[in-house]
Write a structure and sequence with these properties.
The chain is mainly α and 137 residues long. The chain is built from four helices and no strands. It has helices spanning 3-16, 24-73, 80-88, 91-135. Helix 2 (24-73) packs across helix 3 and helix 2 (24-73) runs antiparallel to helix 4 (91-135). The longest helix is centred in the middle third of the chain and has 50 residues, at 24-73. The chain starts with a helix and ends with a helix. The mean pLDDT is 87.
Length: 137
């Protein structure tokens, strides 16, 4: 997922899940939309997990290719620490590593959003029950 798309989705979820206890209509709309939001977020978690796994595989493949290249090009015996330092300094490997960290951060956001959606559902239920109690229903 691109950073721009992620920022738009993050902003959407934050705005949508913001509860204003004084706006009953907004709370009712939110209560109606929570199941759909939940499903949408689950789909994004699945997509993001797939993308993260694919990047992880690419990074492991790049690591293996660099490891073989270093051993082939450098006949002298190198320590594992030296080989890993050479791999970590490779720009393509570093780029993959940064991209993977960004994707994991996005995945963590979507997973925590699912928890927030569930929490919001309980908060809305409690709010409605409290309103009923005070109105005498």
């Amino acid at each position: 997922m691109t950073e721009e798309k992620f920022k738009k989705l993050r902003s959407f979820y934050q705005d949508t899940l913001n509860i204003d206890g004084d706006d009953a209509r907004k709370m009712q709309n939110l209560a109606r939309n929570l199941p759909g939001l939940h499903q949408m977020c689950i789909g994004q978690v699945k997509d993001q997990a797939t993308e993260t796994n694919n990047l992880n595989v690419l990074m492991e493949q790049r690591h293996g290719a660099l490891y073989k290249k270093i051993l082939k090009d450098d006949a002298r015996s190198l320590s594992n620490h030296a080989i890993n330092a050479m791999i970590e300094s490779d720009p393509s490997f570093t780029k993959l590593k940064i991209e993977l960290k960004e994707q994991v951060t996005m995945l963590n956001f979507f997973e925590s959003t699912i928890v927030n959606i569930k929490s919001t559902s309980f908060q809305l239920k409690n709010y409605v029950e409290l309103k009923k109690f005070f109105s005498g229903d």
